[in-house]
Design goal:
Blueprint: H1 16-29, H2 37-50, E1 54-58, H3 63-71, E2 77-80, H4 87-94, E3 98-101, E4 124-128, H5 139-149, E5 152-156, E6 164-165, E7 168-169, E8 176-180, E9 193-197, H6 200-209, E10 214-216, E11 219-220, H7 231-262, E12 268-270, E13 277-278, E14 284-288, H8 290-293, H9 297-306, H10 337-343, E15 346-349, H11 357-367
Parallel strand pairs: 2-3, 2-4, 4-5, 5-8
Antiparallel strand pairs: 1-9, 6-7, 6-13, 8-9, 10-11, 12-14, 14-15
Helix pairs in contact: 1-7, 2-7, 3-4, 3-6
The structure holds pyridoxal-5'-phosphate.
The site of pyridoxal-5'-phosphate has 14 residues, from helix 4.
């Protein structure tokens, strides 16, 4: 095969021909940011597409997490997962909240509901789970625990754009959910993100918080931040929304080919679709059992790299291993055996809507011996 590098992801891009009239219109309006026309249009379009009542756009996927914690007045300790992108835990740290790590379920890689209750202390105020790889958390069990102890639930749904369970958006779970529209995600606005909530009052509060706390020209209601999305990226987002279903279908086809090829490879595990779930195929993780496969995860990872196939070890290292967090009691290896085992065995294979069959075969050939 030629020496072309196969990257782990490739962004969904609107056509330039389609984008230029939008840019022309923005230039004509001369309204570049602060809840402009395209900003409002994209919030409306996302409510419809995602089947949710309220969407607040943000300039990235980290700020809605930080603002959610402010809006819900979360303090003390928050129970979360070490198996995620660092932004999840960083949002707690920036709010002066102590993260408490709980181990994950080996089947879904999401926080293990069985292990949440023992981690609750009098200082616990919320749970922050992540729908890792877009696989839905056990939202019912998490809500039952939250209700029993009077805790808020904030879902980091950065991977879960468009995911539905029995026809209902996964974003309806908990008090609020957040999305990332970063270039590497299923749906992107280059950089961007959103907060999804269920009542108008919360939406209003979030919109104040992302605009420095301004309620009107002279009133500041809270110590807000600047999290606003601009018109150019909102317009780009409107165009990308039109092709995201086709992109998800393209990803599904890639997942089908990977599964066919890897089904009978000893020591290579992967995730199947869940019954009743509309998946978005945001990632395709494989899990290497070194003993059965005859090669460690890292040996395979570097072998793939030598053949120009760039997988990613998502999520390795665990968040609990980073210097900021490793001193926490809950970061102890003994508290997180499943997360460590998964982090040491995972490789996310290249996954994007237009990954072609030659590339897929080349990737598979590196894994199938
Ligand atoms: C991408 C991501 C974020 C952060 O999103 P940005 O848009 O990059 O700020 C947060 N949490 C998870 C799980 C992510 O994958």
């Amino acid at each position: 095969m030629e020496n072309k590098v196969i990257t782990v992801t490739s962004p969904l891009l609107p056509s330039l021909d389609d984008f230029i009239p939008y840019l022309q219109d923005i230039w004509n309006r001369k309204w570049l940011t602060n809840n402009g026309y395209y900003h409002r249009e994209l919030e409306k379009a996302l409510c419809e597409y995602l089947k949710v009542p309220y969407v607040s756009l943000f300039t990235n996927g980290t700020l809605p997490l930080m603002c959610a914690l402010q809006a819900l007045r979360i303090t003390g300790e928050v129970i979360t997962t070490p198996y995620s992108f660092v932004a999840t835990t960083h949002s707690l740290w920036w709010n002066g909240i102590k993260p408490v790590f709980v181990d994950i379920d080996p089947e879904t890689c999401n926080i293990d509901p069985d292990k949440i209750e023992v981690a609750i202390t009098p200082r616990t105020t919320a749970i922050m789970p992540v729908h890792v790889y877009g696989k839905p958390c056990d939202t019912e069990r998490i809500q039952t625990i939250a209700d029993k102890y009077g805790l808020k639930v904030i879902y980091d749904a950065a991977h879960a754009f468009g995911v539905e369970v029995n026809g209902k958006s996964i974003l309806e779970a908990g008090d609020v959910s957040t999305l990332s529209f970063h270039a590497t995600k299923v749906y992107n606005t280059i950089e961007g993100g959103a907060l999804i909530c269920k009542d108008e009052k919360m939406k209003k509060r979030i919109d104040y918080l992302k605009n420095f706390g301004f309620a009107d020209e002279t009133t500041i209601v809270a110590p807000g931040i600047n999290g606003k999305m601009d018109e150019v990226r909102a317009a780009y987002g409107l165009l990308n929304l039109k092709q995201v279903d086709a992109a998800i279908e393209g990803r599904r086809q890639v997942a089908i080919k990977y599964r066919e090829a890897l089904r009978n490879v000893k020591g290579v595990g992967f995730m199947e679709d869940m019954v009743g779930v509309r998946h978005n195929y945001s990632y395709f993780p494989i899990f290497i059992d070194a003993e059965k496969y005859g090669m460690t995860r890292d040996e395979l990872y570097f072998k793939m790299k030598d053949s120009q196939v760039l997988g990613r070890r998502y999520f390795y290292p665990l968040i609990s291993e980073f210097s900021t967090y490793r001193g926490l009691e809950s970061a102890n290896l003994n508290n997180l055996p499943v997360a460590h085992k998964i982090a040491d065995s995972v490789i996310c294979l290249p996954m994007y809507y237009n990954l072609n069959i030659e590339a897929i075969n080349h990737i598979i050939n590196q894994i199938v011996k």
